[in-house]
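Archive transcription. Copying these from loose printouts into the bound notebook so they stop getting lost. Printout 1 of 2:
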Amino acid sequence: MAYQAGGQRPAPRPVAETPEIQAYLEDYAGLLETAASPSLVVDHCWDVVLANSAFRSLFSAVGPHPTAMPGDNFLRFVLFHPDAPAVLGDHESSWCLPMLAHFARVVETHGPDHGLQAVRRDIAQDPIMEAAYRHGLPHWIRSVGEDAVELDGAVRPLLHPDPRRGAVECRIVAETSRTLEELGCTRLTFVLRDARRAPSRDRRPRRTASHLRVVPAAG
């Protein structure tokens, strides 16, 4: 059976009240729909402002979660959703730690922010993730280099729900227009490509309460 992309395109989430901005976002949503690769627009807190059908299809098998749905806040999905490892290949090292490091950097540059502080409180409630945030990240960044924290150009594994795709890689392309930049938003596109080699791990990771299994001790 052919893989089906489900659902109609939702209205863009409002980030400004002016009719001009809303019209721009509606047209930008149409632009996203022309992209074959999963693509979304996020604000500085990773709240999803816009997403295309390819993005929603990529996460179509994800179960419900009160705060960490991929179409609501992608950072929370990566860090807190128990289904994240079923889509994000090599979840801990390729997605969770880089996103956690990116979040730590944003917290330092943005200062007090209600959305960011809410994520920080949730991290603190997970002992393993809190240990990673406070102690593991500096060691990890020293081991892999500062470039691992950057989003644009990163190549990361995915486990696509379409059986014709399966295990793939995606290159993350981050870009912003002048208007999106003024809104504090960035467009992220996951450019899919065939994986260089099949992963040796199970393609259906077991759901666990905490995603981070091992946190390297700070050296």
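Printout 2 of 2:
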Amino acid sequence: MRLSSLAGFALVLAVLAAQSSVVKAFGNKDVAYASVGGETSIPYGWIDFCQRYKGECAGAELPAVDVNLTDKAMREIQQVNATVNHAVEAVPDLEHWGVVDRWDYPMDGKGDCEDYALMKRKVLIERGFPRQALLMTVVRDENNEGHAVLTVKTNGGEFILDNLSDEVKPINRIAYRLMKRQSQQDPNVWVALGPSAAPVVASR
């Protein structure tokens, strides 16, 4: 995907420069993982997405694999996060598609939170990152509203890619309440996160 302006590209470069030594800066104290529970309900948006993109959801279960957290890998994760954030215009599903909740790739340059996350997942897979480490995740934000992000699971902790921030944050530094996400082994199985989970419609 291409950035819409030189100014946007310059902003992405600035973000990457500011985070260039992110792996070293986090240190051991920031190695954090979500508390994972049992299987839970699958978001309707994912089910609907899979009906339209069967090839994206088909396939046998795979063993869990984490990303090897090197400086190079983190720089690439940061680049994808910032690039997609600036390449897509935030538009609610109701305005975009005429429905309350639709998960899709933002191929027309428009989308909401889950569309950003799906595109980041797709781009990272195309760049060789393991599917099992790129997990669609549903959270509740500071206003208790549903929101979708992408979790990248690494051997140095879990990181959140969010359309509301160009900063790639360790999972223990986000202001959201974790609800559910894809299983590492099977993207069509969702697991609860934290002490409780409830069905959520991602809205931003």
